[in-house]
Amino acid sequence: MKTIRLFIPLIALLAGMICYSSEESYSVTSSPEEATVVSSTTASVNWKVDVVPYGIPRKNFETAVSEAISAWTVHATITGYEAVVTITTIDFSKNGLDPRWYAVAKDGTSIFLNSRYRWGLFTGYKAGYVDAKRVLMHEWGHMFRLNHAPLGVKAIMAPDYRRDIWTLQAWDIAAIKEVWK
Fold it and tell me: For 79-84, which contacts have Cβ atoms below 8 Å and span 24 or more sequence positions?
């Protein structure tokens, strides 16, 4: 029998409180038993998806997560990265996070996607949607210790969501190589 999660307890990162998200905000799915490992010659990264954004099939979302990680690890040797990163979808406005944000990476162990937005997986622009893979690449950049690119620089790590960027740019590649040299 599969257990269905009806709420998500958030770790003590949100003012030490346990917060809950309504099942109406996202697709309710069961959690995987074990973390997935993305391995390459330059890195081994453990991750698991807790709650998939509504409207995206789990398998497609997990593929996007793997591709987002691989976009970075192909450019740098990432060693000593031992966290198991949990990716989940929550309602930011109900959990103490800025509801204008698309996503946030916390404490090197969690990536939260804001359920208030309509998520999709696509290349290019689709009115009313946020591309999950592009946002995941940005958040994995933070997981791999990168800060935001300076304002005006064309980069996945730009502090704003750029609808015209779908791959790592020169700034991103230089930054990951510098951090993990």
Answer: 79/43, 79/180, 81/43, 81/44, 81/45, 81/144, 82/46, 83/46, 83/108, 83/109, 83/143, 84/35, 84/46, 84/47, 84/48, 84/109
Ramachandran region, residue 159 (left: φ > 0; alpha: ψ -120 to 50; beta: rest): alpha
* β-strand pairing of 84-90 with 110-114: parallel
Counting every residue written for the chain, the total comes to 181
| Type and span of the H or E element at 172 | helix 170-179
Note the pLDDT tens digit of each residue in 44-57.
788 899 999 998 99
Structural domain boundaries in the chain: 23-145
Bridge partners for 114 per DSSP: 90
d(CA 91, CA 9): 12
Q: What is the pLDDT of residues 14-27, one digit of tens each?
A: 222 222 222 222 22
What's the pTM value of the predicted model, to 2 decimals?
Answer: 0.77
Contact 122, 109 (CB under 8 A): no
CATH of domain 23-145: 3.40.30
Amino acid present at 9: P
CA distance 165 to 45: 24
H/E stretch holding 120: strand 119-120
